[in-house]
Every structure is written in structure tokens, then in C-alpha cells.
Amino acid sequence: MHIKYKKVLTAAMGFMLIWVGSAKAESTFNDLQYSKWAVDGIEYMAQRGTVAGYGNKKFQPQTSVTRGQAITFLVRELYPDQLEKPVKNMKYIDVPATHPFYREIAIAEQNGLAGGFPDGTFRPNTPISRAETATFLTRAYPLEQGTQHSDWKDTDKHWASAPIQTMSSNGLVGGYADGTYRPDRKVTRAEYAVFMARVIRFERENAIQAKDWDKLISYMTVSEQVGQMLMPDIRQWNGKATTTLNEGLKNRIQNQNLGGLILFEKNIVDAQQLTTLTHHIQTHGGDIPLFLGIDQEGGVVRRIPGGTNLPGQMALGATNDPALAEKAGQLTGEELKALGIQVNFAPVLDINSNPDNPIIGMRSFGSSADLVTRLGIPLMKGLHQSGVIAGVKHFPGHGDTAVDSHLGLPVLNHTREQLDAVELAPFRAAIENGVDMIMTAHIAFPTIDNEQMISRKDGTQVPIPATLSRKVLTGLLREEMHYQGLIISDAFTMKGISEHFGETEAVQRAAAAGVDIILMPQDVATAHQALIDAVNSGKLSKEQVHDSVKRILTIKSKYNLFEPSPSLPQKLRELKEIIGSQAHLEIERTIAERAVTVLAGKDGKRVDTIGNGDRVMIVASDAGQAEQLERQLKQSKGNVSIQTETFILNSNNMKSIIQALNKTDYVLLASYQFRNVGSQVRWNELQQLITEMNQRKLRYTLLSLGNPYELLHVKNVRSALAVYGKQEPNTLAAIKVLLGQLEAKGKLPIELEPSEQ
Question: What dihedral do alpha carbons 238, 243, 246, 250 form, nearest 10°?
Fold first, then answer.
């Protein structure tokens, strides 16, 4: 395996190289101004940790490369593991143990990489020729005869004719204008670095074309391999939102050899800008494309600018229609793919069986394993049909928690039987139906793994979360549930991880536990180095890294990321036909309308409606929501004559609201609960208003815009609807029901036992 080797050689001889490690292209050497043709090759090999300079950032590109230097470069590239091991006695009489390249030359001899001369010498300080360069490289790499024609006048009878022909026929070396190759001409350090870079890139490209991921990995450095396992966010650079391919982003991709990025609202201005950004990122990514991911669940978690803002997963749960769920996944995938995004962290397969869950709620399809499975699997398949990877979440299940893992470390103490019957059921179904990516939860499951760790927050013992648990990820998910796809962590910036475990330890433990991709490390450079150190120290086996990277490359290939990309102008032209298309908006409308659910009403089926001439009071928790409802009501009323007035529901406003009831015929009372548990909502004001309206026998409807658990906290509600989101499609569907234009046919997707009416 070709991995980077960091070592400083002592300056025992004048020609001896000084190791520069993994210094990057923008600052590695400062004497390449007259060798611009070779800069790319030199920097590429320096980044791989293969070629070195003379100190003071000098590479001396025009200096001849010696046989000893040439062999050292190859050994560093091909056999870094052997550099730390004892070597056999040197057989060459002119390479004493004190020679700076003694070890490298011995390793080369042991591996048949280079031979000496009949007189028993190696001549390490002799400049290498073009013929010897071709010979060394064809011994080092399994090159086959290529298709390019080459007929050099001075190589037919040369001892190195065969290797020169092999290199030439693959376009890896060239000749001169007079038709000669000049096999005995000395090779400069610049030329040698370029030749090596050409061969490695050529072999990598062949591996990609053949989809030989083991071979490709063998040409990847440790830095490149573990870089594939990192997927940071790029929200800002130098205090400004990252919306273009700036220098900070370029450096991050290059310095940590990143395998992917996650995008957020800060990275998005509009569809054209986002498509331009993703296109430029991929063109900068090198020969291995990046995963570009996003959270586009629909409903409350959405990112697509100007796109189809679907009503959300619980709204789909209320339709109980797998076909609609599949269409939702398909249209979401079509829009994401048009924007240059290949990974969607959706659907949520958590079962929201706990009404006090502060983070899942209406992001779930519902409170039963059967419903979540019935809707989640078709949505996943719809994404796949559009060529987008579905990253289902949060394994083993985040639905029955009362702690937000963004803010703390939840613990789920279910029995194994309960986990099998409930939380794990949708994930088993996803595996059976070909899911390619599963996201972990920062939640402890003592039934599966009862290991404790010392918290860095306060020194107490805390249970190990699933993300860091080998028993959960390797034992349960891989070995017991037979999952073969990618395991990606939830964000490492979340306090369920960041508060209790240091970045270095958490990253190393997650990878050792079985995580293939670390999402959003707090400091990507620290995380990258932590993984390199873990490999070098043996905490993380090279075989496990190889397996993770192979899975990553396999999935990238499966979703055609290695295929040539359309031009940017073509992508921008196609956007208009896809993002927010009429066909997509029709599906959005259908889901929203079919999701509207009667929570309370006459015969449990009909709510109070708005009539002609009504004076309508709209009461909401914030001005923006009240204004949205008022606007939609006026736009949808048709020939119905109504008057409207808006109020904000809070303790300071109650007196004014109750007084206004005297001149009101109908009250539209909007309630919104998300990201807070029920006990944190101000139910007293809501109950006071409900009681007052009941006493006055006013017509009204309590409109649930979020988690539909209002009836667990408010008594004697006569008329109530749930729409599972405060987005425009959801509220417009509710307005149509209240105007009598639409029948509410949704079925409540959660278990709800309201107080006695």
C-alpha cells in the first residue's frame, strides 16, 4: 500500500535531501519559477510525501537526480512500511551503512526494484539516465504496452528499448523534435518527479476506469485515504458565508484530501449560485469526486432554494400513501441532482413514540414502526431512482428520547426485544431494500453497549454513544443485521459528542467502531491528523481504513460520480425545467391537502368553517405566521366576504385578545411546537383562550402547525386541525378546509389520547 512516510534525514552528505513531509502545493518550494512546466508534477509528488527538497524551500529542479535519490523516491512511494523495519545486509560495496540512502537502496534491492552493476557497485551518486528512469518505473509499476505509436531512432538496439517503448506507448515519456529519445541523457530532478507523477496518475486513472478500487487505494496515501472518511461543513471562511469556491475552501479540500462536504443555508443564495458552487467544487476535487450532501427532509428541515418545499415526513405519514412517499423522494432527488448534490440525509427512520421528543417530532413519519417503514422505504427508493444517495437516520433510533443530541447525550434504556420490535424495524427494512448509507445517532443504548467513559465536560462517567460503539456499529449493524453499505456519523459538532469527548479521541473511536465517514468534525485538520495518527500507531488498522475507503469509492461509482459532468452552462439551462417545476409543485400540493387531519370536530370529522360575512380573528405565536395565514385566507376566499384581524398570543396580549372576541365571529388559533418539549410551551394562554371561546360558543379552529400533540395539553377543544408544518403548502391546505373548499382526509400518524372533551 502506498502511504506517506514522514522522516527527517540527517545532513551527513552535501547532496543529501531534507524531508519536507506533507507540505502543500502553495508553499512547498520557492525555486520552481524557471520550471513551470514541472510544477504540477513536483508538487503532486511532494504532497504524496515522495519527493523532498534541500531545505529553505529549495527543490533544485534543474539538478541531476542521482540513482540513490531516484530509488529513495520510489521506495518512499512503494514500500513506506518497510522503512521502519530492519534491512538485510547491503550487497553493494559502494553503499556503506553510513550512506544516507542505505536503507532505501537495500529495500529496493530486496524487492527487485533496482539492480547494481557487474563490479558489485550500485553507484548511488551517479546521475540517472532517461533509459534507467524508464527501467526503474516499469519495474515499479505494472505497466502494459499502450496504443500510442512511438518510433525513436536511437532506442531500437538499446538495452532499455523495452521499458522505453512501454513508457512511450502509454504517453508517459516523450522524445525530441529530431525523432530521438536520447536514452543516455541525464534526468533532472524536475523531470524525474514529472515522470513519477505521470505514471501514478496513469495507473490511478486505469484503476478508476476498471473500477478496481483495491488498486486505486494502493495508489492513495494515508492522507488521501482518511481524507475520504471526512465530510466537514463549509459554512464560512474569514467571517463570510462560503458561497463560492474561495481559497479557504480550496485549501481545505487539498490539505485534508477531503472525500465530501455538507452544505447548509449559509452556502446557498439561489439555485444558480448553488449549482455553480457544486460544479466548481467538483472540478477542484481531483480524480476522486466528492460526496456533496445536504439535509433536504422536507417540511421543517429543507435547503433547496426556490425549489419544491415538501410538507414534511409526518404530513406524508398522515396521507398513509407509499406511492406519494416514493414520488416525494423522486422529485427531491431530481432537484438535488440538478443542483449538483448526490447525498440527501433523509429519510428520517426514527419512530416518534415520545411526544416530548425535542428534535424529531414531525420530522418522523409517525409513532409506529409499521408506518415509518411503509412510508420511509418508498421515499428512500424514490431518491435512489433519481440517482441520489439516501442517508437514512438516526441509527439505532432517536424517536423515543427526551433529550436533543444537539444539546446533550440522550440515553435509551429499552430492552433488546423492544429495540428489535420498534426502533430497529425500519432500518432492517431499509437494509433489505438496498440502502447505501446509514447515519448514526449520538445516543447511548446500554442494552447493546454498557461501556462507560470519563466525560471531558465534568469528569463523570457517561455511557458511550452509538456513534463511538463498536458493539452497535460493527457488532449489531454490520455483523448481526448484515449491512454492507456506508456508515456515516451524525455531526461531530453536536454536544452529544463534542461536550464529552475530545475531537481526537472521538474521531479515532468512531472510525475504530465502524464509522466510514465522519460528518462535520469541529476542526477538520485535527480530525484528519487524528486519523493519520491512529493508522500510524495501529489504533486504527489499515485494513479497516481500506474497507471504509473501498465502500466509499464503490458507492461513488454506483451513483456515477466518476462519470464526466455536463458543462456548467448546460446544468444552469436545465435547472429551470426541474427546480420547482409544475409537476413537482402538484405533488407538493397533493401531499399537503391529503395530510390535513381533523384532531377535534363534530363527529370527529368536521371542524368549524369560515362563513360569508365573518369577522375572522387570526391568533398566532408570531407576526410572520399570522400574516401568512391572513394573506392565504384573503387569496383563497373567492366570493366569500370576510374581515380579518391578527393578534400575537402571549401573556401580555391576552386582555386585548379576549376583548376583541366581542366583535369576532370566528377565531383561527395557530399553535406551533417544535424543538421544545411540551412542558416548555405556554399552554396556559392557549387553554385560557379555548375556554373563553367555548363559553361564548364562538366558532373557532385550533390549527396545529407543528408536532400535533396539542390535545395532550389543552382540554375541551371543539375544533382542531393538524397540518404538520408551517410552510406555505401546509397552511394553504388548512385554509381550504376552513373555507369549505377541501375535505380533511388525513389520518393522525401518531398515538394521541386527548384529555376528556
Answer: 110
Cis peptide bond upstream of 396, omega within 30: yes
Cβ neighbours, 10 Å, residue 611:
15
Alpha carbon distance 459, 457 (integer Å): 6
C-alpha 595/C-alpha 745 separation (Å) is 7
Contacts of 436 (CB under 8 A, 6+ apart): 384, 389, 390, 485, 486, 555, 558
pLDDT band at 15 (very low <50, low <70, confident <90, very high): very low
- Cell numbers found for residue 647: 393578534
Nearest residue to 24 via CA among 257, 218, 190: 257
Q: Which CA distances in Å does 474 have to 156, 477, 512, 519?
A: 58, 6, 9, 18
Q: Which residue has the cell 512501454?
A: 166
> Can you read off the three cell numbers belonging to residue 591?
401531499
Residue with cell string 447505501: 436
Catalytic residue among 406, 547, 622, 665: 406
Look at the chain and count its residues.
757
Helix, strand or coil for residue 168?
helix
Cell of 212: 478496481
Angle made by CA atoms 24, 28, 32, in degrees to the nearest 5 = 130
Q: Which three cell numbers stand for residue 77?
A: 512511494
pTM for the structure as a whole: 0.92
Is 546 an annotated catalytic residue? Answer: no
Residue 105 near residue 71 (C-beta atoms within 8 A): yes
List pLDDT tens digits, range 470-517. Answer: 999 999 999 999 999 999 999 998 877 888 888 899 999 999 999 999
User: Is the previous residue joined to 584 through a cis bond, with omega within 30 degrees of 0?
Assistant: no
Q: Over the chain, what is the mean pLDDT?
A: 92
The count of other CB atoms within 10 Å of the CB of residue 523 is 14
Cell of 455: 466525560
Beta bridge partners of residue 666, listed in sequence order: 616, 699
Sort 536 into a burial class: Cβ within 10 Å, 0-12 / 13-18 / 19+: middle
> What is the widest separation between alpha-carbon atoms in the chain?
113
Catalytically annotated residue among 233, 295, 400, 490: 490
Tell me the three state secondary structure of residue 285.
coil
Q: Count CB neighbours of 426 within 10 A.
A: 30
User: What does the alpha-carbon distance between residue 310 and residue 325 come to, in Å, rounded to a whole number?
Assistant: 11
**Cell numbers 515522495 correspond to what residue?**
50
Tens of pLDDT, residue by residue over 36-66, are: 999 999 999 998 989 988 888 999 999 999 9
The answer to whether residue 500 is catalytic is no
**H or E segment to which residue 525 belongs:** helix 524-537
Confirm if 262 and 237 have CB atoms less than 8 A apart. Answer: no
Write the CB contacts of 162 (distance below 8 Å, at least 6 apart in sequence): 138
Contact 90, 105 (CB under 8 A): yes
pLDDT, mean of residues 300-306: 87
Give how far the C-alpha of residue 38 lies from the chain's centroid of Cα atoms, to the nearest Å: 34
